[in-house]
Amino acid sequence: MANIVRNRFLGGFLGLIAMAGCSTAGQDGDDGPCPAWQICFPSEDSADGQSPTWDPVGESSSETGAHDTGESGEPEPMPPSSGLPCEVRDALAAACGDCHSAAPSFGAPMPLASYADLQVPAPTDPTRKVYDVVAERLVAEVKPMPPDGDMSEDQRTVLLDWIAAGAPEAPNADCDEPEDGEDVDPVGPDALPCDPEFVIRAHAPGSDQPFVVPVEGAEDLYQCFAFKSPFTEPTQAIAWAPIIDDERVIHHWILYRSKQPQTDGAVFPCDLSLQLQADFVAGWAPGGGNVMMPPSVGLELGGPDDFYIMQVHYHNSAHYADAVDASGVAFCVPDQPEPQTAGVLTLGTTSLNIPAGAQNHTEVGTCGGLSTFFWPELHIIGASPHMHELGRAMKTILTRPGGVTETIIDKPFNFESQGMYFNDQEIVVHAGESLQTTCTYDNPGASMVNFGEGTGDEMCFNFVLAYPIDQLGSRNCGIVF
Ligand code: HEC
Fold it and tell me: Using one digit for the tens of pLDDT, what is the confidence trace for 315-334?
């Protein structure tokens, strides 16, 4: 679907949006320390009246941030001649280079930057060459590469044709300097046009030290970090930025809000049913950028009786021994609440019967009579699909009177790469229109799979970010619990 984010996953919400109401109260030096495991929030009695401060990790760019290990640092630009034919090198750089760069990041297990990189044994199957596994994953329905399927047919064809020809070396390829990525907006708190006052970061249990990512057994580590709300009244955010610290091992994170009491500073293995008792607040996956709410809209952050749980998915498949991480998120809070509040509306269905052995099995949830109280329209800004391991794809289609349809989201699904997709343009839903969410599954197992909280059960939820959320009678539509 064309108009969902230019960035992968969490794209920056349109550069066009003005930062109305953004606090600019800060002074120039705004990089003071913030206890990493606590939520940083301005204290009223701050002695010198300085703006709240925090310690940005990774500066402003997602290109940096690996801890100083002396070896990795910034991913190296690909050399002009890599032994690959130029168009192959360019296709790999454009579609895979975010993760499979010379120094792989975001959990990718190997580089795809040179001829030699493609000739070595594949990390998960040493009996095969990397290029062979590449060909397979380029067309895989299950866990395709790139994970969100966003790559041009031309690029895919270039790679498949080259591999079909035996992946020949082009030792003397005289390629142009690789293009310096299209205009990617800078990512991180420094790139926000406001001072973030509310910061949440990964940390060691009860400590302000970064979280130590285990060397072994962290191929798929879902680590949860709990925080108590620092707010004394219902509070909104007008913008937020991901803080991406050790990008070698972080795969994605999701911040949830819950009414269930949590111990501030606690670190524990995540319960994957979290999203049933907690609301999605924000999420990041590779390619995701800073997010700004539209003018006059504030993202619902929470109030005094809320708790936050940040779920971070670590993927230390390279077994880095020095992986420590303080990734997180920094929110800008408006001086005055914005008139409109954006929050999460859940679409989908809990009625799931996925037969044993089924392929491309679909389940549909229909949200028909969406009605708002005083506001005639609901504006959809973004969407975050949630299924479990059998989920392959999700789409949500809006049907207007006369049968005209609009796509809210239509994406492959990969349990290990979840974030929120932002629409390039808001999609406006009126009373009487319907939203149909279709979840697609493969069930290789020998028994029927139904809805449930366990990893072996399935889900079909699309967490849609919409405003005005407080004008809705219910935050679920079409779902029977
Ligand atoms: C957003 C980050 C990201 C992008 C972009 C990406 N990958 Fe991956 N890739 C990963 C991660 C994480 C893994 C490990 C988990 C898995 O296998 O799904 C992986 C694994 C793989 C594997 C499996 C290696 C093995 O031994 O099993 C192949 C092959 C692969 N990627 C090829 C590609 C190709 C080709 C592209 C571009 C067309 C690409 N990837 C784009 C993140 C990415």
Answer: 888 889 999 999 999 999 99
What percent of the residues of the chain are helix, what percent strand, and what percent coil, each to the nearest 5? 10, 30, 60
pLDDT at 309: 96
The CATH architecture to which 340-471 belongs is: Sandwich (2.60)
Q: How far is the CA of 411 from the centre of ligand 1 (A)?
A: 17
Span(s) in the chain for CATH 2.60.120.310: 190-332
pLDDT per residue over 352-370, tens digit each? Answer: 999 999 999 999 999 986 6
Indicate the average pLDDT of the chain.
80
Output the CA torsion 226→232→237→243 (10° steps).
-30
Residue 45 CA, distance from chain mean position = 36
Instruction: Give one DSSP letter per residue of 388-406, joined into a string.
Output: -TTEEEEEEEEE-GGG-EE
- Mean pLDDT for 402-419 is 85
pTM listed for this prediction: 0.69
Confidence at residue 271, expressed as pLDDT on a 0 to 100 scale: 78
Residue 129 burial class via C-beta count within 10 angstroms: exposed 0-12, middle 13-18, buried 19 and up:
middle
Tokens of 264: 């501030």
CATH fit for domain 190-332, picks 3.20.20.80, 2.60.120.310, 2.40.440.10, 2.60.40.3600 = 2.60.120.310
Q: What Rg value do the Cα atoms of the chain yield, rounded?
A: 22
Pocket of ligand 1 (CB under 6 A): 95-96, 98-100, 106-109, 112, 122-125, 133-134, 137-138, 143, 145-147, 151, 286, 315
- In the chain, residues under CATH classification 2.60.120.230 are 340-471
Per-residue confidence (pLDDT) for residue 166, from 0 to 100: 95
CB neighbours of residue 183 within 10 Å = 7
